[in-house]
Structure formats: structure tokens, C-alpha cells
Amino acid sequence: MPKMAPVLVLSLAIGLGAAAGFGTAQAQTAAYVTDNLEITLRSGQGNDYRILRMLSAGTELQVLERGSEWTRVQAGNQQGWVRSAYLQEQPAAVTRLERASERLATVSEQNQSLMATVEELESTVEALTEHARGLEQDNHRMQLRLQEATEGLQLADENQALRKDLIDLEREAQDLRQEVVRMADRSRQDWFIAGAAVIAAGMLIGILMTRIRWRRRSSWSDL
């Protein structure tokens, strides 16, 4: 989903220890194939080496050794080399948008559930309020009977019990009203956060797509 605002961008730290063109082997970190680009996984550090497989945009890779031009990665159970320029630290924009959309769908389902609960609570409050009115009328009738009856003590006890029931119901109705208000506020807040997250993700994708088109035209010949 309140929750904490959904996390839409994963920040991953990649160590840069490059020396003489390539860094020494270090702890594995994640990298992702650049958006809207299919790249080659090769058996060695250069375009002359055999192509092991094609990697589609957004594919998650484990970095084994990073260099300025070529990086050794693991894709599933296969290891090979890819151009460093075609890797990015964050998941593809499309992937992030899908996650944001899934989060929005989850929040929407939660909101529907909350709204249903709110409606049930409102119905309960209405029923309790109506019952309280009936008790108030009964209390009024008991007061009239108390004034007219000769057995005043017994009627007084009944009247006291009705008063207690009325006070308890009024307290319960007040608690339910407060719960309805809290749940309504929570529902509005979840909708606002989810909507803002999707708008932000859409804007980020627009910016990334513009940069990717320019970069793809300038580096396509390197594949």
C-alpha cells in the first residue's frame, strides 16, 4: 500500500573499483539492461567473441566484475560479458510502472474494503442511534409511571437500569462514529498517495524514454 508510501524506485549501490580497464572481483550487485534496448551477452570482452544469448530491456543481472567498457555478469545460470554502457542501476521504467500500477490496484482493493467497512459501521451507528431513541422513549414512559405508581422503588430501579443502558449505548455509538471518521480519513490518504506515486512514475518514464531514444540512435552500431 497507511502505510508507508509504496517504494517505486530501488536504489542499489554498485562498487566502482576499476583499475587498468577492469575492477577486481567484488561482492555481487544487481544491474539492469537499459530500457528499450536488447543487448548481447558475449563469451569475452569484445564484439568478436561469441554471442551466448540476447538480453532484453529490463533484464536483471548479477554483476561479477565491472569495467569501464565491459562488465562480467551472470544471467540466470549463464555468465558472460556485456557493454558497461548498456547497464543501469535501477529496474526498467516499465517495470517500475508495473509495480506502481500493482500497488495502486492493491490500494484500490483496500479502499473498497475500507469503504465497505465504513458503510457497515454507519449502518450499525444508525441502528444503535435508533435503539437509543427507543430507550429514551421507554425511559420517558418509565418516568411517567414512576410519578403515578405507588410502588416507586421497583419502578425507580427499572428506570435506573434503562438510564445505564442508554449511557452505554450512547458511548458505543460515539466510539463507532469516531472509528468511521478515522477510516474515512485513512481511505482518502491512501488514494492520494497512490495517485501521486503513479503520476510521478509516469513523469519519470517520459523523461527516461526521451533520453533512451537519443542514446539508442547514437550507440546502436556498437551491438
UniProtKB/TrEMBL annotation:
<dbReference type="Pfam" id="PF08239">
    <property type="entry name" value="SH3_3"/>
</dbReference>
<keyword id="KW-0472">Membrane</keyword>
<dbReference type="InterPro" id="IPR016476">
    <property type="entry name" value="SH3_dom_pro"/>
</dbReference>
<protein>
    <submittedName>
        <fullName>TIGR04211 family SH3 domain-containing protein</fullName>
    </submittedName>
</protein>
<feature type="domain" description="SH3b">
    <location>
        <begin position="28"/>
        <end position="91"/>
    </location>
</feature>
<dbReference type="GO" id="GO:0016020">
    <property type="term" value="C:membrane"/>
</dbReference>
<dbReference type="InterPro" id="IPR003646">
    <property type="entry name" value="SH3-like_bac-type"/>
</dbReference>
<feature type="coiled-coil region">
    <location>
        <begin position="97"/>
        <end position="186"/>
    </location>
</feature>
<keyword id="KW-0732">Signal</keyword>
<keyword id="KW-0812">Transmembrane</keyword>
<feature type="transmembrane region" description="Helical">
    <location>
        <begin position="191"/>
        <end position="210"/>
    </location>
</feature>
<keyword id="KW-1133">Transmembrane helix</keyword>
<dbReference type="InterPro" id="IPR036028">
    <property type="entry name" value="SH3-like_dom_sf"/>
</dbReference>
<feature type="signal peptide">
    <location>
        <begin position="1"/>
        <end position="27"/>
    </location>
</feature>
<keyword id="KW-0175">Coiled coil</keyword>
